[in-house]
Amino acid sequence: QVHVVESGGGSVLFGGSLRLSCVISGLTWSEPCMGWYRQAPGKGDEFVSSIDSTGTDVRYANSVKGRFTISQDYAKNTLYLKMESLKPEDTAMYYCVVEAGCPVLGVGTRGQGTQVTVSS
């Protein structure tokens, strides 16, 4: 059974940076796809970024393109999301999502989330 644990969230000022981490265990799929979704208060799930197992299929939401960078460390079974130039509208609970294939639709295994709060 796939299990994910997110960490790295926090409170930062406008323009600040954070790096989210997601430790993944129990993967048995041959070509998993991993990504990040976020949910702001009163809003629905929003795709942020995803990456396939080879690292060649990398996707970003337009709202974060150029500011966020997704990466993975196979040796540590960890997915990362480096977030720079953060804006108040980035404030949300961020979830790591793992699915059997790409694209990541947000319906796969996710953790408890990590809160990111950006103040102006």
Description:
By secondary structure, this protein is mostly beta strands. The chain is built from no helices and 11 strands. The strands form 2 sheets. Strands 2, 4, 5, 6, 9, 10 and 11 form a 7-stranded mixed beta sheet that branches. The chain is globular. It starts with a strand and ends with a strand.
N- and C-termini, Cα separation:
40 Å
Strand element count: 11
Beta-strand portion reads over 45%
What is the number of helical segments per DSSP (H or I, 4+ residues)?
0
Percent helix: under 10%
Could you report the average pLDDT, rounded to the nearest whole number? 94
Low-confidence stretches: none
Characterize the largest beta sheet: strand count, sense, and whether it forms a barrel: 7 strands, mixed
**Structural Rg:** 13 Å
Shape field: globular
Q: Secondary-structure element order, as H and E? A: EEEEEEEEEEE
Structural class: mainly beta
Entry keywords:
11 strands; 120 residues; mainly beta; 7-stranded mixed sheet; 4-stranded antiparallel sheet
Q: Concise description?
A:
It contains no helices and 11 strands. By secondary structure, the protein is mostly beta strands.
Please give the structural blueprint.
Blueprint: E1 3-7, E2 10-13, E3 18-25, E4 33-39, E5 45-52, E6 58-60, E7 68-73, E8 78-83, E9 92-99, E10 109-110, E11 114-119
